[in-house]
Amino acid sequence: MTYEPPVTDYDHIVENCTCAFCGCNCDDLDYLVKDGHVVAVRHACRLGASKIMEDMDQRLIVPMIRDENGELKEVDWDTALDKAAEYIANSIRPVFYGWSETSTETMKEGVALGEYIGAVLDNQATICHGPSLQAVQNAGYPIQTLGEVQNRADMIAYSGSNAMNSHPRHMARYAVFCRGYFRQRGRFDRTVVTMDPKFSDTAKCSDKWIGFEQNGDYGFYNAIRAVLRGKELYQDVISGIPKEDIYELAEEMKNAEFGVLFFGLGLTHTLSKQRNIDIAIKMVQDLNKYSKWGLTPMRGHFNVNGFNIFMAFECGFAFGVDYCRGYPRYMMGETNTIDLLVRKEPDCFMVIAADPGAHFPNGANQHLADIPVIQIDIHWGPSTELADVVLPGSFIGVECAGTSYRMDGVPIFMKKAIDKPETCRDDEWIVRELKERVMKLREEPNTAPKYVPNPNAL
Amino acid sequence: MKTITFDQIKTSSIALEFDELIPDEIYSWTEADFAKYQVPIGNSRFPLTDFFEVTVEGEANGPDEVEMIINGDLNRVKYIGCKMSGGNIVCNSSVDLHVGAEMSGGSILVKGNAAAHAGREMSGGYLEIEGNTKEFTGASYIGEWRGMTGGQIVVGGNAGKQCGECLTGGKIHVKGNCDILAGIHMTKGVIEIDGDVNRWPGGQMKNGNIIIHGFLGRLLEGFVLNGIVVDPEVEGVTYEGKYIQYTGDIGLNGKGNLYLDAEANKEKLATYGELDDEYTSIREYRNL
Amino acid sequence: MEYILKNGIVYDPANEVNGEKMDVMFKDGIIVDDVSADAEVLDVTDKIVMPAGIDPHAHVAGPKLVVGRLYRPEDSRRGVTQKTKVLRSESGFSIPSCPATGYRYSRLGYGTVVEAAMPPLEAKHTHEEIATIPQIDIPAMPLFGNNWFVMEYAKDNNIEDIAAFVAAWLKLTKGYGIKIVNPCGSEAWGWGMNVHGINDKAPYFDVTSKEVVVALAKANEMLNLPHSIHIHPNDLGHPGNVPTTIETMDCVKDVKKGSKAAEIRDQVMHVCHLQFHSYTGNSWKDAASGAEEVADYINKHDHITCDIGQVTLDETTTMTADAPMEYDLFKLSGLKWANKDIECETAAGIIPCIYSAKNPVNTLQWAIGLELFLHIDDPWKVCLTTDHPNAGPFTRYPRIISWLMSNTRRMEMIENREVHKWAEKRTTLATLDREYDFYDIATISRAAPARIYGFTDKGALTPGYRADIAVYDINPNDIDPSRQYAEIEKGFNVADYTIKDGQILVKDKEIVKVKESQNVWVNVQGWEKNEEKVINNIMPFFTQYYSVKWENYPVHDHYVSNPIRIDVDGK
Amino acid sequence: MHYANTYLEKPVVPDVKITGEGTTDVLKCMLNTGSDIYQGACKKRGSTLKEEYKNASGTCYMDPRDMAKLGVNNWDTVLVKTDFGEVVLNCAVSRDAPHEGTVFVCKGPWANTIVSHDTYCCSDPTYKGIRCTVEKTDRKVLLMADLMRWVYKKYVDEEDDDVVENMDSLGELPVYHGRKWEELIDHDL
Predict the structure, then answer these.
(1) Is B143–C74 a contact, with Cβ atoms under 8 angstroms apart?
(2) Crossing angle for the helix pair C123-132 and A304-315, to the nearest 10 degrees
(3) Which of A61, A269, A311 would best serve as a mutation to test chain D binding (most D beta carbons within 10 A)?
(4) Residue A213 belongs to domain with CATH number
(5) Do A252 and A164 share a structural domain?
(6) Distance of CA B278 to the CA centre of its chain
(7) D131 and B279 in contact by Cβ < 8 A?
(8) What CATH fold (topology level) applies to the domain C50-503?
(9) Predicted complex ipTM
(10) Which residues on A lie below 8 Å from B249 (Cβ)?
């Protein structure tokens, strides 16, 4: 790494912009703008800065449609939108996936379109914190805003989360290093524990590293709960951790004044998936008998929580909502994108502000090769290589304003700092336009004429 | 008695939803009614007769007098027998999701495998699956803490993960092996497993009984060893032989019982804590 | 457009109209004295006509609602209906989705619903939800009772700065009035503790709950806000909380009403869901009703109004900013517990709750609610609520009305053991034979809440008011509510007509039109200088200890596209 | 125009020199995937077609002892196989070592070809804790566009993996038929 002099050549600064990278939604960024481009970003982490100062080589600027030779061809907006609307209107099992890197204003149009046509609406939670949400639904959700952590927490546990790599400012701005009202000495007033099979970068700057074995999460947390109940452990080593360490950790957690458990994909992607988090939540609930504990899932995209919140107030379910029968349905293994793709059910797939090409397993993506794929995004990415219609959107928080929800549910209005490229459109406009075109093509949505609601309910 | 036979003409890649075709709804239908009926597929409806030839024989005055026989490849037919309260369904093939979900009476026989959520939240009746089932057999709807409350599920083959999740009554009998976390969160009822169990049965259980006749890979710390019992009697059934009995899950002050066949788990007491092979957990039970 | 509702039987307590057969006319959204011959006639012969309902205390929008919806899909699954040409799909029973909330209130004949707890930091979220709920007007009440700044000022007895702070925060959050929840208790919950009683201090802040309440009440009157302080006292749901409740009510009796406020409302304190605050005893084993004592205080004092929070004996979801109480409940029920602490401001707890008629405690709660309704003599002091969704969903209001109107039904429930015998043994419910009439019902669900909130354009059929009207298919001259309680419930379940701002939303019991909701907020004038000073003072603290930038704190106009602004002269 | 440099050609990894042939041809390992800061930065700045993304995401991070067993050095190529597919990756010393017996691949199109799509009814595929084998290979690591063509073959008629793998590279810049901007701007929209 080489030293880089600070950027001094800029026209003006836009202050207090919100970062459009991870669920931290840092809202203190300053953009240095020259000739309508952001040339430098102050306060952002490496990830945030890299996103905001995007690579223009791969910026999607003009709508494109795949031609008969399988090559993308630039077309005008009308042609591209009509083509996309045609795919959607003719589909029986459309899936609209993504939404986590766009604003709730766009989602509003999306849910209108999805409900009209009878689509499945799903977001990135389905491949990251979906199990967390399922665990929340089974066990509860003791959460707090990040300011509470900053002001009160004296014990921070990261479990299956490598904050230093995926939420680089999390420790600095909200959790560990920052000074809080009751924690005036910052890092020195806090104990940091990292629970992760890997000796990750976060573990390296923690006071304690619990390197439990791969897939052993459930057994490990169960043992802590047993200890909290006063039980003697009879195995010497549980999930790769000596029992003495578990006693010690449980004691430390009980004695914290205010503890917070941050958990990431390390828990959701392993063997017992949602149950890892389920039992971690139960552990936090147990700990509240002794002191104050809370937890927060380390959400990845800046608005992945926003979609879950948005869908919850629009239809009562957080993600993976299937409108195909004209009412919302939410069922694990049935209405989620990966399951649908693996079962080869969808016949039209719209990706908005997401990149299944980069994130879905081969087994799911294979089906995308067989069906029309519509992509709304700002960059040429792996999904573009599978897309049949490409609609260039705009960059929320930089080129376009919108609402997002931080990982702890605090809403943030992301403001606009620069103009978007002339040929791009706002995501909100694109989806609304699609909705109107689909409505024209399919005047009467073909939904089930009969449904008897649960008679006990009302 | 009325026999309704569904013979498949063609399959669909998008699942057909059979939640309206249960004895409670169709006991009075004639062949002409079926010819008019449109079955939901994705966001649309299509004539049922495009996919199935329906033959009706006999008369019925109520759902109990109906026998449905469904022939063909049902791997993309979901919600078979969902919410039924009586009658009899025979599926001569593997079936898709939610077979027998929320049923309160009657019986379903699946002569093949069943996909996930078989018998979810059933409150009565009898569901038999000759082959394997996938995840959440006899489980609850997500978020719901009251799962299956009555009736019986018999799985001839293996059961997937989280079999009998939140079980609140009834009995699940798995004749083959069971994947991880069988009986998680259960509060009542019985799970009997003839084969082996990979890891962690009964996580966070409050009450109820799990009987494992085969080998258990890994047990949770939340279980307290009670000792060896001979010929234990669980809800009126006596299981012959020696069993190791545990109580759990202590994390919830649980009073659930876990019986392990002492013969099959001879080493359990001695070499407790041996690791099983992760490989098994991910692949093996899946493809059996 | 001009309309005339012909031959209805009108109950309009604000204008002392008690069951008169008369016509109600409105034009361009406003009630008028007279219309031209072109007016469209809506024949409502022998049907009940009332102002549209006003729900003074419900939780319909905001972060804790969404946590509830997020973590209770099993509740959302109940009450799912398919979309129609006019309506979107609905879901949920105790915590309906936003569209469902609007539709269901509209079907009940309601026009205004107060969202009773809005954390200022997440006010944007509340407003996003308000914008998603159709059909009704929604004022929202920001939470002040555990706000660090308020506690600091209250410790110094600095009423003027509290007033300026409140004035500023109502603007920032687009709020309607001061909501106080478990003052000092939710702050104590930040350390896993609670306060016990009104004289207990918040840890660190060294201020008692009473000091906070009195200071906020004084500030409220200093600003002449249309509503008084709206308080959820300490010790909610704990046996033996009657003294705390009475002391809370008593501590503001000497606070003088603001001169302009006195013209539009009577009280200086509104106590919400009083039922949860009227228990005697030391534990649930020996708990009994304290309704008589509490009601007696209210009967003797004019500075208090209340709503009840009537338990409806359903499976529901409880959610309140009283987070420590929710954790206590969780320890009892062992179901799933959600909690949400909000930095420097408040906390919230949510748990599923099954109120069962077989359960002695739930039955006691049910009976206490009804006792309060029947013991409080003046219906203008009491409002109909279930504290939706805490004691039951608002869709049960018609059932509560049928209970209030029918002593026969109440005795039947007690004598047939439909409810636990505690109802008879530990409360006076069985001895009360008072029955509400339609005029009383119109008072507790329309006129009283409107007066308590200082609404000067709704809650009555006065010419010049907004045309918010409900028509029910009940002929009051032809029904004996005491015996025909089932018909009463059925009649109030779906309005024949619901008219909001002159638009016919429900016609013949079907929703025929969907209208955008409007937020109602109070803009205090005359305090701008003080507000600026207070904001400047707290800015260093804010920058250091809040996790958002100041610029991101207020509710931008973007979120309140179509508000009703109420200008209040604060000086 | 000066843009601040937010990325690196290659992730910085510890220096290690493995000498000798190694003791095994095929190493049995546990595969983990996830994000790291290099991968995240490349992905989000949108340089996914380029060499830098290949280096950040198409790299198999290994414990140095495992590398010694295979006899591979930083930035040699290895073939990783699971039950779900195979892919050629660079290998490099893991910054999080020691974790003998575990290899780490950042999420991205490369990892996708070898992770499990099984969700076990839990919406989320199994990205972590998958049995895999690692072996030395001479095949080259494909750029993103080439990899997508090789795995999904959506727009090539050829079905044979080897043929597709050796087709002309699509390169590091988008491939599409351009038209003139002016024609395409519809000012009415």
Answers:
(1) yes
(2) 40
(3) A269
(4) 3.40.228.10
(5) yes
(6) 25
(7) yes
(8) TIM Barrel (3.20.20)
(9) 0.94
(10) 222
